[in-house]
Structures are given as structure tokens and as C-alpha cells.
Amino acid sequence: MLTLFRLAFWTILAVLVFVTLSPIGLRPEVGPANLERSVAYLLFGGLAALAFPRHRIAILVAVIAVAGLLEAGQGLAASRHGRIGDFLVKAGSGAAGWLAASALIAMAARPKAG
What we know:
about 110 residues; mainly alpha; about 0% strand; elongated
């Protein structure tokens, strides 16, 4: 299962890099931008915690750093722009996904009563 989580983590990271740094015309649109950001980073943060359960605090820092680096990287693309508000949505959603997955991990690790 860990291998599947790690594969999904690296896949979503690659998709996030492409979608965030590619020219705006190549970015797929399936809904409101903040909803897309929120869902993508919620999944990213959750998968990160599930893929690397022994390093959850470092992974939380990495999820937030990825959000910041990718948002800052948009300043290097001619048709893109990085915004603090977009970063806050991405970092907050990534942290929420991480928190939800961390809670699931903690609940699964508890001994079962009975």
C-alpha cells in the first residue's frame, strides 16, 4: 500500500509542477480556480502524509514549501503570476490534507478495543 501512496504522491507532484509552471493556455480548467487549487493541494498534502508516514512533520513543511516554491516559480513564466492569496489557499489546503491523513494514520495505529 505504501508503494501505491508513493506513486500517487509523485504523480500528483508532477501534475502540480506542470499545471503551475506551464503556459496558462496549457492549464486545464475544470472549475473555479480556488476550488481547483484547494482540491489539488488537499490531495497532495494527504498523499504526502500517507506516502511518508514516518516523516510527517518534515512532509508538512515540504508540502508548504512546494506550494511556495511553485507559486514563486510562476514569476519566471511570461504568462503566469504568483500571488500571496493563491499560496495561502494552496498551503492551507495542503496542510488540511496532511492533517486529515495524519488523523487517519493515528486512528489506524490505535489498538482496537474488544
